[in-house]
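Hi again,

Forgot to attach this to my earlier email, sorry! This is the prediction with NAP bound. I've pasted everything inline since the attachment limit keeps bouncing my files.
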Amino acid sequence: MSKTALITGILGQDGPYLAKLLLEKGYKVYGMIRRYSNPNFENLNYVGITNKVDYLEGDMTDESSIINIVKNIRPDEIYNLAAQSFVGSSWQQARLTAEINAIGVLSLLNAIKFFSPTTKFYQASTSEMFGIEHTSGYQDENTCFHPRSPYGVSKVYAYWITVNYRESYNLFTSNGILFNHESPIRGIQFVTRKITDGIARIKLGLAKDLHLGNMEPRRDWGFAGDYVEAMYLMLQQEKPDDYVVGTGENYSIKEFAEKAFGYAGISDWEKYVVIDPKYKRPAEVPNLKSRPEKAMKALGWKPKVSFDELVKMMVDADLERLSKK
Ligand code: NAP
Ligand code: F7E
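Structure tokens for the complex follow:
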């Protein structure tokens, strides 16, 4: 009998990579989508698996839809990737962010507790929970949380309720504390993709400049395709646990931009960048850098795609996409 998995947030960036991995491993994959009227299958098309997934309609803010899905399919594994994941918007939509990212997780855990207690649960936790905390310049599983946005705060609740249901009800629930991971199907508003898309537009004469906010923050960027392997591995362990996943290296937004412009053959890149206060945040996370030793040792996981390869992959993909158009 093949294993079954439910992925929430399947239409986002990570969902398609994870679904592809699980399908390759012989899983039957269910994907929860918010609506049937006008779903955007672009990212699933990109990885070539749109017709291989079974879609179920549900919303993280609608507990009855979550209960119905879990009760009906009782999957072996649930990967909760659904979220209002854009940090910038979380100040404008703080309550909605909390309802989706925090209370939605409680609904999923209750559905598991009451209707499918053997289901293993993965929660998409984030380095944003660390915010301004660090231990000698890096963050790992022992670093305290000090989130700096309504998004980060909502994810701290989700993290702890996942731990709490494990400790209270003996459920198999794990948190992957993932640092930033990117790809050619990264949402266009996130800074890496905004930069690579902007560069392709400048290069092809479709835009004159690129408006960005604070270019000093540093991020530990990896490739999404590598990170979904860590998610999968967490649910294959004997015991549930929480793991930091990242590359252990970090770069500033400025360094990312310089590298990406350089790869596209534009050396005088600074003349194309306009610093626009509109993109600055009320509170910033200045420095994220993982120490992923635990994931490397316990899961045998390590990132395969380097920073340089990631930048090239994203610039190439945006140049190709826009050239075709
Ligand atoms: P993403 O591209 O923003 O995808 C999120 C998905 O969640 C979207 O498909 C969206 O559906 C869905 N969603 C939003 N609100 C929902 C709701 N109320 N009910 C059901 N589905 C809803 O995010 P991602 O980059 O793939 O990240 C996956 C998860 O990992 C997220 O939880 C994110 O917070 C977390 N995370 C991401 C990173 C990263 O660097 N990418 C790092 C750490 C943690 P629509 O398509 O309908 O909008
Ligand atoms: O910003 C700065 C911005 O929006 C990165 C999400 O996946 O990773 C992501 O959150 C940095 C910030 O990602 C612009 O101020 C400058 O310092 O790409 P981002 P994020 O906020 O790190 C974490 C791990 C998640 O969990 C989240 O879900 O770049 N920045 N100028 C800008 N950022 C954006 N978006 N746009 C700019 O113009």
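The longest helix spans residues 94-115. The chain is about 40% helix and 15% strand.

That should be everything now.

G.
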